[in-house]
Amino acid sequence: xxxxxxxxxxxxxxxxxxxxxxxxxxxxxxxxxxxxxxxxxxxxxxxxxxxxxxxxxxxxxxxxxxxxxxxxxxxxxxxxxxxxxxxxxxxxxxxxxxxxxxxxxxxxxxxxxxxxxxxxxxxxxxxxxxxxxxxxxxxxxxxxxxxxxxx
Length: 151
Prior knowledge:
By secondary structure, the protein is mainly alpha-helical. It has helices spanning 3-10, 14-35, 46-58, 85-93, 105-110, 137-150, and strands spanning 100-103, 122-125.
């Protein structure tokens, strides 16, 4: 084998990285279509996503929101602060919010596993809460964060 062939074996061709990116985007759109999931944007496109969430609720769907706004990549598994988007959504929809917490997922992620072992994941569900109209979105997010931490 020549030196060039050995080099190519150590470093995959550049096309491999584009293929992975394309596969990730395809997986994202398939999940969106098949499971009816959508991201709440952090920088733009709020109105369209919030409109879609409102329409989904009007059709009788439940909307599940991960209010941290990011995948937990912390070293210790502690929750990231809740973003105000959950407050805006709760304020505008005026519906009860059910606080929930998933325990055990962070450990799976750290171990690079996709499947949980029996009993490894715990789902804690709180009582529904509604917020008075006029409550500031940041205050709603702060209260929800506190509720989820106490579960």
